[in-house]
Amino acid sequence: MNDLPKIFDSFSDSRKKGFITIKNLKDEGRKVVGTFCTFTPWEIINASGAVSVSLCAKSDETIEDAEKYLPRNLCPLIKSSYGFAVTDKCPYFYFSDLIVGETTCDGKKKMYEYLSEIKNVHVMQLPQTSKGENSFKLWKDEILKFKSVLEREFNVSITEQKIRESIKIRNEERKALMKLSALGKMDPPPITGLEMLRVLSGASFKWDKKTEIEEIYNLIDDVVKKQEGGEKKVPQNAKRILITGCPLGEATEKIINAIEGNGGVVVCYENCTGIKEISKLVDEEKEPIDALTEKYLNIGCSCMTPNDNRTNLICQLIEEYKVDGVVDVILQACHTYSVESYGVKKVVTEEEGIPYISIETDYSQTDIGQIKTRMAAFIEML
């Protein structure tokens, strides 16, 4: 395999390097806000002068510790989140001045109650549907409440101008990440799906957004030039796979490895780790709180009912990325995504005519053999 550009090392190691960066920022007097979900309005945190950081939640390292307090038959993401908190093994959690959660599922709601015994936690109450004026008003009120909490906790004033500036820089980051994701539209793509995932994941651990955006565009130029020069990372006949479903992390890279080790290539991630949040920009012309409310409320998460935003996006991506098959990744005991898989399968197979497979897994590595076997059979069928 060809050597990766040095910038890939920057992104894949950014989480570890981020521990040191966060400590240095704390030493400089910056406040840190720990987050779990893409529903958190990054722009409001940034406008407060604080640093937003994604908390450790995608490893089985601390699940055994979490199960001393939480049920075993609970989503691994929830157990991992609480496990890292209760064991103090997540430096980002340790340095956070405030933790923000959203009511995306019942398990998280209850876990936040226990989390608040360890840290200062603010929970944003999501509506159960993105439709209608009542939902819009509820979520707008939650964003305004969150703004007030940050102002009170950090003794700052979050002005409209600061919010507008934050919207602009975050939109620029979204555009850069979407252009990166669009590399998957090339035939063949100039990078593998695993490389793509690591850059997308690592981006959330880079806090100098202007530098990050420049690095992303440099990366894009570099890999495209190398492919044009004859370097091929992905075979021309690799089957093109779209991944949807639950968020991915290091523990679930086993699925990407199984796909790309059996003649496939992941060209697109629809889930929270990928395109779901970045595919729509915040309207920079509207009143900023209204614009943020509209943008975040319409993220196609399975906690919303109905969830047309997700299926519409999947159909759009199937066409744009010339997808051969769809893999739906479901974490064990994630009820909303598990129930929604029937509807997604119906849309993908009946409306789009594309083969579909669902994989239920957790953060352990015990099912690697089974996943490899199923992926090999699925890709061979394609």
Descriptive notes:
52% of the residues lie in helices and 11% in strands. It is built from 17 helices and eight strands. The protein has a four-stranded parallel beta sheet, with helices on both faces. Strands 6-5-7-8 form a four-stranded parallel beta sheet, sandwiched between helices. Belongs to the FldB/FldC dehydratase alpha/beta subunit family. Pfam families: HGD-D.
Looking at the overall shape, the CATH architecture of the largest domain is: 3-Layer(aba) Sandwich
What order do the SSEs take from the amino end to the carboxyl end, as H and E?
A: HHEHEHHHEHEHHHHEHEHHHEHEH
Q: Can you tell me the CATH class of the largest domain? A: Alpha Beta
Mean residue pLDDT: 94
Task: Report how far apart the termini are.
Answer: 25 Å
Arrangement of strands in the largest sheet? 2-1-3-4
Q: How many β-strand runs?
A: 8
Structural class: alpha/beta
Helical content stands at 40-55%
Query: Main beta sheet: strand number and arrangement?
Result: 4 strands, parallel
Question: TL;DR?
Answer:
The protein has 382 residues and is α/β, with parallel strands linked by helices. 52% of the residues lie in helices and 11% in strands. The chain has two domains: 154 residues, Rossmann fold, CATH 3.40.50; 220 residues, Rossmann fold (3-Layer(aba) Sandwich).
